């Protein structure tokens, strides 16, 4: 059976980008193999975060996973910090990735470009090391992610190759999995930038008031043309709205172009807003039901136990391979 592994960082309110690029993908793959998900709380410490917010965000991610239709009887969910093997393995694996390659990571460059070196914590630099540990701990086959995370899966693959060449077939080679349409949702106020929860400009949040979502879509930045046509380079705003519409309706881009041929942007935006608010209204209703039960805690407790068992075995395999002595 194939194993899927993925996570979201509890750095802020979940966005429509997280929902389309990540969560919806998990839902569609849930019956296709084993799905192990976690809340990447250790990864969220790489930039300053308020402790109360961190705790609330973590619970919210689990509630939204379930609200989106991930079946708690089929999937596993846990908190990264509760399975200590992630940290232990990262300490080992940091010796198999190099400063030069870490410095070339787009996420590192993006998130630190306006920062002074004296203020950049080590954690944001070594982020791919911990992420590699996250992935290989579970002998993961596929990592369903948005496009921005593919680079981190690629560096994990380099690490696995390097490690196995030296010690034999110890780590499983993972593969990134991105959806065809919707792997990169852009900001509504600047469609040349990725929608991100920690840089909330032009974001649609899953817990936004529906009226606000409507307003955000109706005032999304587009171009001066009037033709609903997909062209990422010249019409990034309209193309982004088309991507969102396509991801939520399963209509192809060509079908959407046909549907809105000869129609004005206003009419198209209204229809996008209708589809987005309808989907988010359903999510919010289910979220409200779930958050009032003890389901989040129950799922996390079971998930932790399940994950710990697998993680412990992998860590032991690695320790033995590299010559760490274990007295048992
Ligand atoms: P942060 O700003 O803290 O990095 P984020 O919104 O980028 O937050 P992450 O926790 O880094 O979210 O990523 C969680 C998952 O959501 C990843 O699989 C990532 O690729 C995906 N994702 C994030 N933003 C988008 C987006 N705009 N479009 C599609 N997928 C996205
Ligand atoms: Mg991110």
List keywords for this structure.
328 residues, globular, mainly alpha, two-stranded parallel ribbon, binds adenosine-5'-triphosphate, binds magnesium ion
Radius of gyration: 21 Å
Q: Strand tally, please?
A: 5
Sheet with the most strands, sense and barrel status: 3 strands, parallel
Give the SSE string: EHEHEHHHHHEHEHHHHH
| Small molecules held by this entry | adenosine-5'-triphosphate, magnesium ion
What is the overall silhouette? globular
What structural class do the secondary elements suggest?
mainly alpha
Helical coverage, percent range? 40-55%
Mean pLDDT over the residues:
96
**How far is the N terminus from the C terminus?**
32 Å
Q: Going across the major beta sheet, what is the strand order?
A: 1-2-3
Strand share of the residues? 5-15%
Describe this structure in words.
With 328 residues, this protein is mostly helical. 52% of the residues lie in helices and 7% in strands. The chain is built from 13 helices and five strands. The chain has helices spanning 16-29, 51-67, 85-93, 99-103, 106-112, 122-125, 127-136, 150-167, 210-218, 236-249, 253-259, 265-291, 295-322; strands at 3-8, 34-39, 75-79, 142-144, 175-177. The strands form two sheets. Strands 1-2-3 form a three-stranded parallel sheet. A two-stranded parallel sheet has the order 4-5. Helix 2 links the parallel strand 2 (34-39) and strand 3. Helix 10 (236-249) packs across helix 12 (265-291). It is globular and about 75 Å long. The mean pLDDT is 96. Bound molecules: adenosine-5'-triphosphate and magnesium ion.
